[in-house]
Amino acid sequence: MTTTRTENDALIEALSDAQLAGELKPGGFYAFKHGDRVSTIDLLDRNLERPRRKKGTVVVKDAASFALYFKKHADEGSEVYVDIEAGRITAVLDAHEAEVDREFSMARWGEHRLILHLAPTTAWQAWKANDRNYFPQVTFAEFLEDNRADIRRPAAADMLEMAQHFQAHTKVTYASATVLASGDKRLIFTEETEAGAGAKQQIEVPSEFELALAPFDDSEPYAVKARFRYRIQGGALHMGYLLDNAEDVQKDAVKTVVDRLAEELGIQIMRGTPA
Prior knowledge:
By secondary structure, the chain is α+β, with helices and mostly antiparallel strands. Helix content is 26%, strand content 36%. The mean pLDDT is 83.
């Protein structure tokens, strides 16, 4: 009958024989001499045929990868948490199990984890980065032109026409703006010519526009309203926009992914952060 030799057995025997440990590899590989034989202890499991238990943290970028890994390694004791604000879902695959009685603890190490960091889309990052900022008219016009594919209303062609107007009329002086009955704004400006100041002109700017944006790669597009803002300083026009309820949209997108994973995996996902 073969008796399994544990690390504690080797330590006790070494101490009883007054033998000192010799470290063969930095970090936890020791040897003990007992007469004509040597016992070894590998504290880091590096020389075992396979690890004693699973551990490590796997980070994935989409819900499909999360579901695939979870199905392979999870058991009845696994736990899943979500941080809505951070867009992060964490599975503790070797979480503590329920205690069957007071004398038998089902504690586990909690060192095998799976994390899903929801990846923001390029469009979402672009519009969020410029939210509530003001830019010179040409810079703002270029941004609208580069991202017109995300604009749902007014028509992209109308927004492009407005952007091209701002790009073409650079040597102008803006004097004032009036609010129309529709809520849109009419900007009054005078363009400089070789003979001096030209006649006053005007351009209408919508009070708001609507975007179709997916916050994450795993999300469907949401309708996000943006309100135009402008400032006239020393005759120069600076423009920007304010996104309405962008944070709420982002949180809802996270919750949608959570609900989909919970249904697919047949689990409950707790809101919070694991210990």
